[in-house]
């Protein structure tokens, strides 16, 4: 009687270990005696207990990956903070298991280095206009490298481009300065109307100048504060 109970318990353990249920959009990589044996498809699967081992588990759904924010240097030597997000999908579970020790880290690092290279070839103003081109270039470079990792890079999107704050302030002051220079002196004297002398007075104050300074002094001080 005791022997029968032991045999029944062993049989139940054997069956429990042999049956594997794989969820939809998931893949299990099986190793037999330390070597790759196969990939289990979604549904009911049978393995050899104590010989086969489920070594890796991969999600086959589209996965969003937040690429860490970084500082890039543009062609005109301006620092630009770039923040983006990457979408990829595992297409080959075997390569994803053995092609790279950590394909998520590899994709993230490659995305950062590729983005720095692309931004470095553009001037600051072009980076805001060429977002689609930057995204396409990054995806093309990542997709070529990720093929050896069993991963398909679907798209890359730039979430935010942030120039340094002093640069933003200088650009705004410069725009106001040239706008005031183009307005006739007979324009509206109130700030509620069309741009006139009040703009010329507001721009020196925004640049840290005195209203009592002469026009030549204001122009000279403004040019000294504006980086080349």
Task: Provide a concise account of the structure shown.
With 228 residues, this protein is an alpha+beta fold. The chain has eight helices and eight strands; from the N terminus they run H-E-E-E-E-E-E-E-H-H-H-H-E-H-H-H.
Q: What does this protein look like?
A:
45% of the residues lie in helices and 28% in strands. The radius of gyration is 31 Å and the shape is rod-shaped. It has a three-stranded antiparallel beta sheet with strand order 3-2-5. A hairpin with a 5-residue loop joins β6 (63-73) and β7 (79-90). By secondary structure, the chain is an alpha+beta fold.
Q: In percent, how helical is the residue content?
A: 40-55%
Rough outline: rod-shaped
Number of helices: 8
SSE pattern, N- to C-terminal: HEEEEEEEHHHHEHHH
Mean residue pLDDT: 79
**Number of DSSP-assigned strands:** 8
Oligomer: single chain
Strand content: 25-35%
Radius of gyration equals 31 Å
Low-confidence stretches: 185-204
Main β sheet profile: 3 strands, antiparallel
With strands numbered from the N-terminus, the spatial order across the biggest sheet is 3-2-5
Cα separation of the termini: 94 Å
Summing up helix and strand content along with how strands pair, one would put the structural category as alpha+beta
Helices and strands in order:
Blueprint: H1 2-18, E1 19-22, E2 26-32, E3 35-40, E4 43-46, E5 52-59, E6 63-73, E7 79-90, H2 93-98, H3 103-120, H4 124-129, H5 131-146, E8 151-162, H6 165-182, H7 197-206, H8 215-225
Antiparallel strand pairs: 1-4, 2-3, 2-5, 6-7, 7-8
